[in-house]
Write a structure and sequence with these properties.
By secondary structure, the chain is mainly β. It contains no helices and 13 strands. It has strands at residues 25-29, 34-41, 44-47, 50-57, 60-63, 68-80, 83-85, 88-96, 101-107, 111-113, 118-124, 133-138, 144-149.
Length: 150
């Protein structure tokens, strides 16, 4: 009897590492491929090639290590291991993994920058859409109390 079959990992990911559970990739722009224009997508898209223009999607964008992206990016979540020049807006989260290099403004409610990643630019972080803002007020006895605001 043979040994237990090894689990096949998608896109060389490891389930224990943050930012590596990508689900099913719906589209892939491979290394050595060039694209100019507007990329609009649903689901998960991975870019390992060169893209110049605009990227629009509600779901997950993966920028692989060999990728060079010069674009305005507006997605649900972005996981970057390659080179991005341009602004990134992500409604849920941005993860910059080693050895990524990002130059531009990142707008997201959650930003993770791993050791070995480079980020040059500015970051604007605000509450997630639909999130409640909680303001702390002091009670009479000096203990803080939470108060919701609209």
């Amino acid at each position: 009897m043979r040994g237990t079959p090894r689990e096949t990992t998608l896109l060389k990911r490891e389930k224990d590492k943050p930012g590596t559970d990508f689900g099913d990739v719906k589209a892939f722009l491979g290394e050595g491929t060039e694209f100019k224009g507007v990329l609009s997508f649903e689901g998960t898209v991975r870019i390992d090639g060169s893209l110049e223009g605009e990227i629009l999607g509600e779901d997950l964008l993966i920028v692989g290590e060999p990728a060079v992206v010069k674009a305005e990016i507006d997605v649900g979540t972005a996981v970057v291991s390659g080179n991005v020049i341009g602004n990134i807006r992500a409604r849920h989260r941005v993860e910059l993994l080693a050895p990524s290099s990002v130059t531009g403004t990142i707008r997201t409610p959650a930003l993770v920058v791993a050791a070995g990643a480079t980020f040059n630019g500015s970051c604007e972080m605000g509450p997630r859409e639909g999130a409640k803002v909680v303001r702390l007020e002091k009670k009479r006895d000096g203990e803080p109390a939470a108060a919701e605001t609209a």
